[in-house]
Design goal:
406 residues; alpha+beta; FAD/NAD(P)-binding domain; eight-stranded mixed β-sheet; six-stranded mixed β-sheet; 14 helices; 20 strands; 35% helix
Length: 406
């Protein structure tokens, strides 16, 4: 039985703790903040994410506060025209084995946290900010900002897009600034006129250099609003307040229903979107990256949390029955299993800007192409993401005792 030290107590870190302890190991989760909590608003979970949550034993708990979506609805925000909808009902669920849901990020995190608190094999440590790591032939050590050292058999870095462990392991500096600013707000559904609620839809309104997304969260009690603007910013901003006037001015090209919903938002906050380039280097001996620390991505593919959950399940499977001496080999196998898929999702999220932000003839061409696709063609387009199920270690050809590839 190994002690797995995990840097980061967010979604990826807690999922990793559940995954490795389900395989007989112990986990110590080190969280920078004094308490384990999650900020943010809505999050979309495709079937692949629910498959991972089921494997972690918390799928039903997440579904209890989630809203099942019936469509991904694509609208032209300038003309108000309905371009197409990707249906998420019976045919989609039969094909991919799960519904497509939306949930408040805090509810997802809380479900994972409750499961960790219920496990005798998981220890949670707030106020433990990891600054760097050290290792020798048998041990990986997280060195905290105050100099405290926490050692285990391996160290998994789930410490986010600004990961201190990645900075040391990969050495690629700060995240890439995308040049896009996103404005977010959450409003009570009771404030939304019934005709504007789209209670079972994730709705995109596209415009020149911008788009606006909304969907219900918290069991349908609130509406999550997220509006993105391609403004070329180079300055990272996180959670800064924004006025209604700024939002109105920024999204002037959007009219009709999109405009009415934007007008309902208040207490807007703004972020500069950042991500990372894919990297081939995920591991260093007994240290490995996971989640945003490994593959931070723009949110436009709605796969950031799903990919972190997949990481955790694959890592847990590959550590099943692993001897301490073989752990570096298992971590390398984990990286091999996840690197290509996550890189494809990262680049797909970047490329999706071309779908959301064109203007004039380019937007008309996009609308024509999308409206010509039937449900099966739309499902085919997302199948590689939404239909994925994490393979067991045996399916990857990894010997569970030695860690050697077979």
């Amino acid at each position: 039985m190994a002690l797995v030290v995990i840097a980061g107590g967010g979604i990826g870190g807690l999922a990793t703790a559940l995954a490795v302890t389900a395989r007989g190991h112990r986990a110590a989760v080190l969280e920078r903040a004094d308490r384990f909590a999650e900020i943010g608003a809505g999050i979309q979970i495709a079937p692949n994410g629910l498959h991972a949550l089921d494997a972690l034993g918390v799928g039903d708990a997440v579904r209890a506060s989630a809203v099942n979506m019936s469509e991904l609805r694509f609208m032209d925000g300038v003309t108000g025209r309905h371009v197409t909808s990707l249906p998420l009902t019976s045919r989609y669920q039969r094909r991919f084995g799960n519904p497509y849901v939306v949930v408040h990020r805090a509810d997802l995190h809380a479900a994972l946290l409750r499961a960790c608190l219920a496990s005798d094999a998981v220890s949670l440590h707030g106020g433990h900010a990891v600054a760097r790591y050290e290792q020798d032939a048998t041990t990986a050590t997280a060195v905290l900002t105050d100099g405290t050292r926490v050692s285990g058999d391996v160290l998994i870095a789930a410490d986010g897009i600004h990961s201190a462990v990645r900075r040391q392991l990969v050495g690629d500096g700060d995240p890439r600034v995308s040049g896009i600013t996103v404005y977010r707000a959450v409003i009570p559904m009771e404030r939304v006129p019934e005709r504007l609620r789209f209670e079972r839809s994730v709705v995109w309104w596209t415009g020149p250099g911008c788009h606006f997304v909304h969907y219900p969260i918290a069991g349908g009690r609130h509406l999550n609003l997220a509006a993105s603007h391609d403004d070329g910013t180079t300055v990272p901003v996180a959670g800064a307040p924004a006025t209604r006037r700024t939002v109105r001015r920024t999204f002037t090209p959007l009219g009709g229903i999109a405009r009415q919903l934007l007008e309902l938002g208040d207490e807007w906050k703004t972020w500069t979107l950042v991500d990372r380039d894919p990297t081939d280097r995920w591991t260093d001996g007994r240290v490995a990256l996971l989640g945003d620390a490994a593959h931070a991505m723009l949110h436009y593919a709605a796969q950031g949390a799903c990919q972190a959950l997949e990481d955790a399940v694959v890592l847990g499977d590959l550590l099943d029955g692993a001897d301490a001496d073989a752990l570096p080999g298992h971590l390398a196998a984990y990286a091999d299993a996840r690197r290509e898929r996550t890189a494809k999702v990262q680049l797909t999220a970047r490329e999706s800007i071309r779908l959301w932000h064109p203007a004039g003839p380019a937007a008309e061409k996009r609308n024509a192409l999308l409206s010509a696709m039937d449900a099966d063609e739309l499902h085919d387009h997302v199948a590689w993401m939404h239909g994925h199920r994490t393979p067991l270690a045996a399916a990857r050809g990894v010997h569970a005792t030695t860690g050697a590839l077979t």
